[in-house]
Amino acid sequence: MARDFQSFVKQLDSMGELKRVSVDVNPYLEAGAIADRVSKQPGGGPALLFERVQGSEMPVAMNVYGSARRMVLALGVDQDPCGLDSIGDRIDHFLQEAMPKPGTGFLDKLAKLPMLAGVSGWMPRTVRKGICQEIIWKGDDVRLSKLPVLTTWPEDGGPFITMGMSHVRYKDGRRNMGLYRLQVFDDRTLGFHTQLHHDGARARTGYAPGEHMPVAVAFGGDPALLYAASAPLPPFISEVFFTGFLRDEGVELVKCVTNDLEVPANSELVIEGWVDPGERRQEGPFGDHTGYYSLADDYPVLHVEAITMRRNPIFPATIVGRPPQEDACLGLATERIFLPLVRMSLPEVVDMHLPPGGAFHNLAVLAIKKEYPGQAQKVMHAVWGLGQMMFTKAIVVVDADIDPHDMNEVLFRVTSNVDPRRDMLFTEGPLDVLDHASDRFAFGSKVGIDATRKSEPFDGYQREWPRDLVFPDHVLAKITQRWHEYGF
Ligand SMILES: Cc1cc2nc3c(=O)[nH]c(=O)nc-3n(C[C@H](O)[C@H](O)[C@H](O)COP(=O)(O)O)c2cc1C
Ligand SMILES: [Mn+2]
Does ligand 1 have an atom closer than 6 angstroms to the CB of 430? Predict the structure, then answer.
């Protein structure tokens, strides 16, 4: 199992999952346009390794996470028949075990120890040396312009680093790691695009204006780290710890050369620096995963003190834009991994889908087992109160026997089962900062659509609800058996 980025790239290569591009490619728009086209191929296309990017010595890897197959490989669950779902099941199992149950005796507790004991094994471990510090640029040697940073869309405010995992620490010592874009302003300064609602912004609030909050942006390392950096984990769960859980082995960390933060020892490259919470600079516009340019706005500035790297690093990058693209696969992983957590609060939810066309937050489809009046509405309100799902603009609720992943089926039920005035619930609340439709920044209206079948006891529906069209099983079995006889 690949535990660092270059081994992962090699593994993908040997499996025919990687396309090497050996001709010269321009980091300005050309690489982005290629990755956009490839990532929109059926199945997500291959991962890309641009071996010769104009203006830099370093090759650039793109679309590495851009297929469901590579996503399960990155998380090390490719051997598992349920792949991503098996991670959700493991979380569920762990939480069940961790929960104290009434009447459990000493022996029961002992029996559960192995799983709980896993926790210490998932903690990160500090090591003295890491390949990510084989080469160190400090002082005048720090030059961001030597990195192959792409400009992906024509009206972008400049080149943007897109696959850097930013490590920070809260004032109380907790670690946080998040995937935030970084606009290159000049050789030593970057935009630090930590959005309002994310932990990356929350961590900064503990530092006073004028103070330096240390930041370390790491690239590569264990391929599972990048997923963890994008996952909507609550602030009390460290993404590095979560990666240890995913891998069932703690991540090895090494101390930075200019501050006290620790970064994954086998990273490809690390940018070390600091942010002064009192400083802001205009960042953007940027062609974003909403499928539009997100508007320029004032964001913190990251001052770079050092760049460290392994010998011959590969620089990871992505392009975000009109879905589907590479990030749809990160979204898919989150949908599968977090479903059991949603079900802990909402046991009636049997399945959930966040379609890529809804760009993560715009649409969630939930299939529920209805047992009492108002249940679809309860589920909607709960989802609007659940972590990063609070951003969801439209929630569609269907019955348990409807496949929420089959968008044709979902549309069929939404249009046929819904009486718009009765079944649409409007409310308002927080929106993703990238939403442009609302009149107000980060706040706006939401709609819940109850597309379940209606009945007297649950919905006060007095008429007779028509039955679905289905053939009896014996007829279906018969035609399947005789299919060739009919001449097909
Ligand atoms: C490709 C990609 C780019 C992203 N860029 C940003 C960004 O620039 N700023 C941001 O706040 N979140 C961005 N995100 C989303 C965050 O990484 C994600 O919400 C994460 O859960 C935030 O973690 P945190 O709450 O620990 O800060 C991006 C996600 C992806 C997949
Ligand atoms: Mn976090």
Answer: no
Q: Say which CATH superfamily domain 346-473 falls into.
A: UbiD C-terminal domain-like (3.40.1670.10)
Ligand approaching nearest to the C-alpha of 338: 1
What is the CATH code for 103-316?
2.30.110.10
Q: 447-483 as b/e, with b when 16 or more CB fall inside 10 Å?
A: ebbbbbbbeeebbeeeeeeeeeeeeeeeeeeeeeeee
Ligand nearest the Cα of residue 239 is 2
- In angstroms, the CA 152 to CA 34 distance is 10
% of the chain residues with pLDDT over 70: 96
Ligand 1 pocket member 181 (CB < 6 A): yes
Burial of 409 (0-12, 13-18, 19+ CB in 10 A): middle
Pairing assessment for the beta strands 262-264 and 252-255 based on DSSP bridges: antiparallel
Q: Can you state the percent helix, strand and coil of the chain, rounding each to 5?
A: 35, 25, 40
- Give this prediction's pTM: 0.95
pLDDT of residue 101: 67
Question: How far does the centroid of ligand 1 lie from the alpha carbon of residue 200, in Å?
Answer: 9
353 CB near ligand 1 (under 6 Å): no
Does residue 47 register a pLDDT over 80?
yes
C-beta of residue 294 within 8 angstroms of C-beta of residue 169: no
- For the Cβ of 59 lying below 6 angstroms from any atom of ligand 1, the answer is no
In the chain, where the domains are located: 103-316, 346-473
Is 297 noted as a catalytic residue in this protein? no
Q: For the chain, what is the largest distance between any 2 Cα atoms, rounded to a whole number of angstroms?
A: 81
> Mean pLDDT across the chain, nearest whole number?
95
| Statement: residue 469 has pLDDT above 60 | yes
- Check pocket membership of 195 for ligand 1, CB cut-off 6 A: yes
* Catalytic residue chosen out of the listed positions 4, 156, 199, 288: 288
Q: Which atom of ligand 1 is nearest to the CA of 327?
A: 31
Which of 163, 180, 204, 432, when mutated, tests ligand 1's pocket best, judged by the most ligand atoms within 8 Å of its CB?
A: 180
**Given pLDDT bands bounded at 50, 70 and 90, which one contains residue 119?**
confident
From ligand 2's centre to the CA of 19, what distance in Å? 33
d(CA 365, CA 352) in angstroms, rounded, equals 6
pLDDT band at 104 (very low <50, low <70, confident <90, very high): low
Question: d(Cα 317, Cα 149) in Å, to the nearest integer?
Answer: 8
Give pLDDT tens digits for 125-159: 999 999 999 999 999 999 999 999 999 999 999 99
Q: Tell me the CA–centroid distance for residue 359 and ligand 1, in Å.
A: 13
Q: Whole-angstrom Cα distance, residue 8 to residue 1?
A: 8
For residue 330, report the distance from its CA to the centre of ligand 1, in Å: 11
The secondary element (H helix, E strand) that includes residue 84 is helix 84-98
